[in-house]
């Protein structure tokens, strides 16, 4: 007999929205999750209840293997609300269970997306999708879905009525390691959907563990430092000089200057923690404008491409990692003479410093205006 699990709380569908793509080539993506969905247009002048249910049988083989039933509502401004029923409880594995998500569609919503997602290796079965939406008589009315019990033939990348993720050109993306097929194990009709994940690799960007070659706590520190620096690099890769030099207002700092600032601050904490000293006069000349981010910084830090900034940023990090390899966890607990911060807190501060300015960089990217193009008039001259 199937268990009924009702989810009334709104959750973030972490596996689907927070895990970044690892590699993409020829429309094949490598990452540890895949998802399928249908979309229904909605128009309502008042809030209406909905209920989405499906039968799911998860048979994960990895530590973090999981499946989920999910639904999102999108309003006229493009804002999304996510409702999710996650399946990760070992007691529910290897058997069919019915999952139900209950929520409300708001009066400004224009469409709802719904479907299933799976994470990592294993076999995941889906069947008997049902969607009910409250009608004008306040009764729950069943909505007709396409291929809700997967009776139609499912071929790889063609789920007959269900959509897989598409790229910006509308082409279906293939997720490496996942296969989609019909299954003779079902709860409704004569077939179900089976998604099988094989040789799926964990995304190391979502795992913090000691890096090899370091003592345990320093190795964990290095993992966090590198996680943040990779995010900074990914955020700025591909920006051109105009975008790197953009100033939001007369008191703002450019993205290029912020990258230099991160390198300057990390260099300062290198000399402070590794050498127990302040900047020399020569070092001040090199780094002070980037460190202070004042008017001198706005005047001096510009007219460079992204290669210039990232080469410098990565070179600073290489020295940090080299020096940390020479030290142990006992060193982390020590406080430099005359200081108030121990070495651990200093490098924790480098991390939070990167995180704070990463947020600034993301905000500035959104505020960069589109580049103006001037079309010359056709004067009819050859």
From TrEMBL:
It holds the Pfam family MST. This is DUF664 domain-containing protein.
